[in-house]
Amino acid sequence: MGLTGKVYLVGAGPGDAGLLTMRGAELLRRADVVVYDSLVNRELLALAPEAAEVIFGGKRPRDRAIPQDELNRLLAEKAGAGKTVVRLKGGDPYIFGRGGEEAAGLHRDGVPFEVVPGISSIIAAPSYAGIPLTHREHCSSFTVITGHEDPDKEESALDWERIASEPGTKVFLMGVERIGKIAAALEANGLDAGTPVAMVRWGTLGRQKTITGTIATIADEVAKTDFKAPAVTIIGGVSTLRDSLNWFENRPLFGQRVVVTRTRSQASTLSGQLKDLGADVLEIPTIKIVPPGSNEPIVEAVTGISSYDWIVFTSPNGVEQFFDYFFKAFRDVRDLGSIRFAAVGPATAKKLTQFHLNIDLIPEVYTAEATARALLDHQNVENISVLLARAEEANSELPRMLEEQGAIVDDIAFYKTIPETGDRNGAAEDFEENGADWITFASSSAVKNFDARFNLAKRCEDSPSLKLASIGPETTKTLNQLGLKPHVEAGESTIDGLAEALLGE
Question: Where are the domains of the chain?
């Protein structure tokens, strides 16, 4: 077969990207090829290298699923070409999936493979719904059954009499469409019609939905609520514990779909806060940080750094880009000499402290104009030399205010932002199809690029319930220019302030 790579059958977990194992994350980060299924959270694909080949293996109704024999051949061929292949499967590869078949095929073809277990929805979905599968006061065992099989078929592989009489909790996977027949089969074989039942859809995700009933009523509840797959069904007395143990669905932003528009590298902070509050987060980066059109002014400014009295940073990106260039020219941060530092806000200041620098000035209001006013209040700037390390498309108000008072300002673009149009994590597609409750904006450029991609004004007109959240006055001003008014504006122009603004609603 020649040079042989390896196939890793990796359990992606039940949905929540945070439930992927550390081993799974490690393998994704060095994958050459990723083959994933429809129930895999596509956020996980962002862990793979940009150069990795990403292949959808099925099975979504609107997409062509790869037939199993063809998929088996694909895995073998990619590994045979010397590739590290991650076969990413929802839940656990060996639990009600075809991981065993795929492993057998790889063995048959002489392809090295490894199995990385994943957290199954069997246990995760009930846990997130506040339902322990075992409990000392209720039961000490549970049985897992596939719901795919029709209870009415003549030769069932399932012993319904035994299932009905088996003590403990009964967990059915993939049986939403057949729940009426399942309940009837259990009752016909002796299970009490009053036995509690819970069904959990999209378990562990922000769109999780749980319905409850009994063997006698659950089919009516499914019909009444238009409850759909994918779901896990839990039958037994433990379902009644949900009233006191339901932690996940009781969080303040649960049920709210929130779009985060920050760059890929910056999105995690806000996304993490919103997820902790219960939101279903869609990360749709609208901007990408790239080098400016010319780096000659940067090189000149950095090599002549000792000539400046102040460096003013208006974003964490500006800090990062400045020091990338600085440490190419100098080896020691002490080469900055006696320069003083101004930061537009706490996030920018925090980035500066990572370089063990003290911040000399932070305005009370986190805007470029407020930074200029704070510096003017701090000292007489006449003949003071100031370096502004910021974006290529930055607002001109700050240098204008300083120059009017006699400062010598070098306004240098250390980076520029360009539209991000990729959708590797599938969030943009999801937003197009299913919408959202909130869109958060942490910069003017995010507003402009999101509008260019999605026609924000038209979308707000078509979806009156869609709400916009702005990080501060500058971002709000840009929204106003589009004829839009944010539903909330952060009281403090920080990521924390933006998250708190949503909480206040």
Answer: 6-119, 123-245, 257-286+420-503, 290-419
Helix axes 267-276, 495-503, angle to 10 degrees: 30
Rg (CA), the chain: 28
Q: How many CA atoms lie within 13 A of 292 on its CB side?
A: 22
Contact between 74 and 7 (Cβ < 8 Å): no
Catalytic, out of 32, 83, 170, 174: 174
With H, G, I as helix, E, B as strand and everything else as coil, classify residue 390. strand
- The β-bridge partners of 282 are 259
Q: Which of 16, 32, 37, 451 is catalytic?
A: 37
Give the pLDDT confidence score for residue 1 in this predicted structure: 41
Q: Which fold has domain 290-419?
A: Rossmann fold (3.40.50)
Give 65's DSSP letter.
P
Residue 377: active-site member: no
Cα dihedral sign, 201-204-210-212: positive
User: Is the fold of 257-286+420-503 the same as that of 290-419?
Assistant: yes
pLDDT at residue number 2 = 47
Q: Classify domain 123-245 at the CATH topology level.
A: 3.30.950
- DSSP H or E segment with residue 274: helix 267-276
The verdict on domain 6-119 having CATH code 2.60.40.1240 is no
Measured N-to-C along each axis, helices 427-434 and 444-454 cross at an angle, to the nearest 10 degrees, of: 60
Q: Both tokens of residue 273?
A: 């806060």
Q: Peptide bond preceding 291: is omega within 30 degrees of 0, i.e. cis?
A: no
Q: What's at 179, amino acid-wise?
A: I
* H-assigned helices in 385-454: 397-404, 427-434, 444-454
Chain position carrying tokens 């997409």: 63
What pLDDT does 60 receive? 52
Please state, in angstroms and rounded to a whole number, the distance separating the CA atoms of residues 312 and 316: 11
| Of the options 3.40.50.300, 3.40.50.150, 3.40.50.10090, 3.40.50.700, the CATH number for the domain spanning 257-286+420-503 | 3.40.50.10090
CB 493 within 8 A of CB 472: yes
Indicate if 174 belongs to the active site. yes
Strands across the sheet with 438-441, in order? 280-283, 257-260, 438-441, 467-470, 488-489
The phi, psi pair for 137, rounded to 5°, reads: -90, -5
Query: Which residues on neighbouring strands pair with residue 239, listed in sequence order?
Result: none
Secondary structure of 217-243 as H, E, C letters: CHHHHHHHHCCCCCEEEEECHHHHHHH
pTM attached to this predicted model: 0.81
User: What are the residue ranges in the chain where pLDDT is below 50?
Assistant: 1-2, 61
Asked about 59 being catalytic, the answer comes back as yes
